[in-house]
Amino acid sequence: MSICKLRTSLLVFSLVLLAATSSFAQYGGGTMGSGGTTGGYTPPKGGYSSSTGIAIGAGVAAGAGIAYLALRNHGTVVGCVQPSSDGMKLMNEKDRNIYALVAENIPLNPGERVALRGKKSKDDSDKPTFHVSKLVKDYGSCKP
Predict the structure, then answer these.
(1) In angstroms, how far is CA 141 from the centroid of its own chain?
(2) How far apart are CA 71 and CA 29, in angstroms?
(3) DSSP character for 143?
(4) How many whole angstroms separate alpha carbon 142 and alpha carbon 144?
């Protein structure tokens, strides 16, 4: 399992655990020695309905889904593939960084706008590189 996937899984698990533990909070109540109450909270006569548990579960699931969607594109870049003296390069549209592409067994054509998934790193000369693991989407030719 890669570090990014492990970090994402750990974050989602932590959020789910945090939401689940907050649903187990107990309220004070009960009686004092002479029949007086501590005041504050009085639980409903019939207890809680199952819809309360369903609502809490739905909230936890929604939170986990939002966390997954927010974190899943961490290693994705979108841009136009361009030829260079060292092979292929791509300028990421999001952060405007130019990456040398390392794409083994993944056909990339110059002049195509693509979304690529992989790992960002730096080569020996400290230039940004992107090791492509998957072609996510080919958007067609780049606009001039």
Answers:
(1) 29
(2) 42
(3) P
(4) 6
- Its pTM stands at 0.50
Query: Residues 75, 2: contact at Cβ < 8 Å?
Result: no
DSSP for 55-105, written as a single string: HHHHHHHHHHHHHHHHHTTTTEEEEEEEEETTEEEEE-TTT--EEEEE-TT
**How many other CB atoms are there within 10 angstroms of residue 130's CB atom?**
25
DSSP 142: P
Query: Which of 131, 91, 97, 86 lies closest to 114 in space, CA to CA?
Result: 91
**Per-residue pLDDT tens over the stretch 77-130:** 999 999 988 889 998 898 888 999 998 888 898 999 999 999 888 888 888 999
- Check: CB of residue 120 under 8 Å from CB of residue 90: no
Which of 61, 58, 73 lies closest to 15 in space, CA to CA?
61
